[in-house]
Amino acid sequence: MICACSPSGKKSVIAKNAQACYAVGMSQPPTSVQDDFSSAGDLRTQPDFSTLFSFWGALSSAEVRLLEQGARLERYEPGTLIHRSDGGCKGVMAVLSGSLRVFCLSEEGREVTLYRVEAGDVCILSASCLMDSIVFDVIIEAQGETRVCLLPSAVLHRVEEENAQVELFIYKNATEKFSQVLWTLQELLFMKLDQRLARALLDEMRRQGSRELAITHEMLASLIGSAREVVTKTLRYLAEEGMVALSRGKVTITDEEKLQGLL
To answer: What predicted TM-score, i.e. pTM, was given to this entire model?
Structure first.
């Protein structure tokens, strides 16, 4: 499975199986659209760096110029694979719109979603080369039309060496994400499948802002780390119990309180 942590910057032996994501039928990611903020022309397209990156106020004017000149706007189509363990070190990405899904993939092709990075949050694991003591082997995918502000690793590393606040930001964010990973593992180990599915449906309801969820059985399976056939069977049970209604490409929550009662 592509999902590991290893000390002192040494890649896990599991990382050599990173190509498994393509062996099981995942296509090569489409090329992203990239823009240089400094030449975008429309100032409204430039993000508020101080809001996206909490270390911004601790930068010198020279460091600010360096990062602003190196920053890029990247746009990804739904399903684009942005990062994988053998694909280099992109940099730190602040999500402007859309979301990113960080997941593991077993050699058999089963996905386990570790967490999501929503608009306004920062994805650190795409810059794992900046963390000497921890390496995460994961895959990062765009969900929906996604726009990110990318601070490339090469540029950020130059600033990190001179400014401890940048390094502190990176490790603090990585620690927070690692806590989410541990919570996901706890769910996999100690929660029954119907409970995990109920939690995923409720999370999706809050995320999409609607009881009518645009989500497939396969997508739900990837979220909870199960097989599509098992998810379909469990959804039918939930439908028989009056908690959800099923239709093509959609799951409608009909009894939120009853679904919540499974947790």
So the answer is: 0.70
Q: How confident is the model over 239-260, as pLDDT tens digits?
A: 999 999 999 989 999 999 999 8
Element (H, E) at 134: none
Cα–Cα distance between 247 and 260 in angstroms, integer? Answer: 21
Q: Kindly state whether residues 57 and 109 are assigned to the same domain.
A: yes
Say whether both 113 and 198 belong to one domain.
no
Q: How far is CA 36 from the centre of its chain?
A: 23
Asked whether residue 18 falls in the same domain as residue 132, the answer is yes
Instruction: Report the pLDDT value the prediction gives residue 47, as an integer from 0 to 100.
Output: 76
Beta-carbon contacts of residue 150 (< 8 Å; ≥ 6 apart):
71, 72, 73, 74, 90, 91, 92, 93
Domain range for 225: 191-260
User: Within this chain, do residues 185 and 196 fall inside the same structural domain, yes or no?
Assistant: no
Separation CA 55–CA 163 (nearest Å):
9
List C-alpha distances in Å: 185 to 115, 149, 231: 11, 29, 18
